[in-house]
Amino acid sequence: MRLAGYLVILQLCFATAASADLIVSYRPTGGFGSTASSTGTGVTGLDLARGPGIDATTFSNGFYAASQWTTSSSLDLDDYFQWGFTSTNAFDLTTLDLAYSRDSNGPKQIDVQFSTDGVSFSSVFDDASVVDFGEANRNIDISAFTNVTSGTFRLYGFDAAETFGKFALLDVLGGGNSIIVNGNLTAVPEPSSLLLVATCGSLFAFRRRRPVQLTRK
How far does the signal peptide extend, from start to end residue (predicted)? Predict the structure, then answer.
């Protein structure tokens, strides 16, 4: 068999299938309230929630909002919005889209953190100058997290001008969402794929065998 043929076999044997997928999204003003607006294959979205240090409040257009954010220049571990997911399938996370705003007295800084166990959180995004007319941050890189079956995000707000200052999630992303989490769902090899791999092994074993040269006397 020629080299080109073996290259084709290699591609067939070792190629992996992956596709970009929505994992979970939230649209609090679209009649969904705190529940996820959409979820990916095998995914259950966790409800949007407020940490124990902040209080629900009203905001323009019914956006998901809170007040009582800390005025400290350091984050308070009780002052956060939380969302996340569990899944029967493993995902390699790719991007986070997030839209938010504050009033003139709301927190001027945020830090978004992620955890796969709900205990140990790592920062994935921060904004040290939140504006009071709204922001939409798309394609925040979260690709460091792979093979994830459950995850929790927390958005910490801090450095508020006053404790009565407000912070809210805006519905200005695609589909009117405020939060979109994306990832790659890698397909599990089907039985036919496993058979192909076995066949490849047999072919290469055959190729390695050299024909016996017979010598006439």
Answer: 1-20
